[in-house]
Design brief:
Layout: H1 22-53, H2 57-69, H3 72-86
Helix pairs in contact: 1-2
């Protein structure tokens, strides 16, 4: 897992109002590219594991994200509401 970048570390060049230093722009581009690669890897892993375990990819994705946000109880309440609405 990549080290979390502290935004304060972006002070790579002297500050000039209205101008973002080239080094900062390059670091932001690198971070964006890494985020895109991570999202692609996550999407593919969800597809593979959902298929392997016979669950819907969207359900697995929502569950994993809820775990990360510590909001599984909230997701459970939403599921119960949806079950009630379709019953």
């Amino acid at each position: 897992m990549a080290k979390k970048q502290n935004p304060e570390d972006f002070n790579l060049e002297s500050q000039e109002p209205g101008k973002v230093p080239d080094g900062v722009i390059e670091e932001l581009r690198r971070l964006r590219s890494a985020a895109n690669e991570g999202a692609t890897d996550f999407r593919e892993a969800i597809k593979v594991q959902a298929d392997k375990h016979k669950v819907k990819p969207a359900a697995l994705r929502r569950y994993v994200i809820a775990l990360g946000r510590d909001s599984v109880d909230e997701l459970g309440r939403e599921v119960r509401d949806i079950e009630h609405l379709i019953a």
